[in-house]
Amino acid sequence: MNTRLTRSWYTLPYTLWIVFFVIAPIVLVVYYSFLDINGDFSFVNYQKFFTPVYLTMTLSSFWYAFLITFFSFLVAYPTAYLLTKTKHKQLWLLLIIVPSWINLLLKAYAFLGIFGTYGISNQLLEAIGIGTQQILFTDFSFIFISVYIFIPFMILPIFNSLNELNPTLIDAANDLGASKWTTFTRVIFPMTIEGVKSGIQVTFIPALSLFMLTRLIAGNRVITLGTAIEQHFLVTQDWGMGSTIAVFLIIIMFAIMAVTGTRKRGV
Amino acid sequence: MERKTSKLTNVFLMIIFFILYAPIFFLIYYSFNSGGTMYHFESFTLDWYKELFSDMRLLIIVLNTLVVALLSALFATIIGVIGALAIHEVKKRSIRNGLLSLNNVLIVSPDVIIGASFLILFTISGYKLGFYSVLLSHIAFSVPIVVLMVLPKLSEMSSSLVDAARDLGASTWEVLIKVILPFISPGIMAGFFMALTYSLDDFAVTFFVTGNGFSTLSVEIYSLARRGVSLNINALSALLFLFTILLVVVYYFITQRQKLNAVGVKK
Known about the structure:
The structure holds two protein chains of two kinds. By secondary structure, chain A is mainly alpha-helical. Chain A has 14 helices and no strands. By secondary structure, chain B is mainly α. Chain B contains eleven helices and no strands. The chains are: A mainly alpha, B mainly alpha. At the A-B interface, helix 1, helix 2, helix 4, helix 5 and helix 6 of A face helix 1, helix 3, helix 4, helix 5 and helix 8 of B.
């Protein structure tokens, strides 16, 4: 039919995009994960991955991502909640979002000055008598700066789900004699769990793969899966091993999506 | 909400806003420092700005970044709109969900994986790394966000609108240009702006697919920041902050105006 023909003609660019930039890259990564450093087919990369070196790295990467997500959530939920209570909440939300539009590297760079040996935070510590501390290149600075970067991304989905919450539900809970805490744990939090889940999604997965921060801030002390992939691709040129780690990262990603995925069908 | 925002609420939100903005203003403040560090403010100077504007290499990089952002946003918008139309026309639920999942792969994938897999893709197809590989990658990762911005607008549109146009003798092409596109234009605009900011902000993907001769601002900032503190970067960040604010204001006004228009139409 005529319409079908025009349809297939005009959908061509999009189809090509899916084939070349969605399917092909994944296939290529999987293919490369089976190539050793000489380009021969082998399982050596997978054997290597299951050695303590890489397993420890994966675990620590997970641990950091967990901490980053956890602290982001701890800050983001009350912020989002309080934001919904303000007048002009959309404007305040916009102001929360603006810093996320400033280049991530610039923000990381700012902390070189803030956390540096002679930086403002050390001047403060000096003034109150604690004395200069090594802040930069520690776990603390890595987690703090990552949390700083991810907070807006965590706030946004939580704010949206809190904003959609029907206030009559809270009134109902009050009328039925629920305390503030009970209202929160039994009504507000469960009703906004979808926002929390998408907040976790947009924080946890990127946190597993941050590599520029580990280079700039953590002084190569923290190695995440992302750092390892970058290292293998751009420094040691061992694309096979890099791809193997990437395959695991993709698997982890799908697992997280499955766990935090929206279950709208059941509702 | 009846309840007034308590003092504690305001204090908490103020602390959050302070933390979010402090590093940015810290950077800007020290861009006027005649001393070469971010530790000790000597006296006010515009030298770093002068140096910035006399740095031809950096100006070319800024230009590159803008060209890549505008072109990639433009192409991504075109492909994305086509994609949204295609997905919208698919009536079968399973195929539609499949297409949507494929569409979302690049949104949920960590940047490192996108970068690494595109690097393999370009290398295997014998494509030289440089301007075009960066541009193609930026188009590729911006397409899905445009689709996601346009799709809701398409589903908002009642099908009787299209039927009416058909009954009045409009061809498929005319329906598209005169009915569908104007209706979904807010989504298209939002998609374009998102693609623009994605491109301006991207570091990780560009870092993988950029060759030796070509660089964008993020990649340049990364290599500068790795060498340590240089107040050029501060001056640059001040200018970028102003630019971002400008972009936010423009975007805000465009969306506000569209909201007003939409209200006008409904009346």
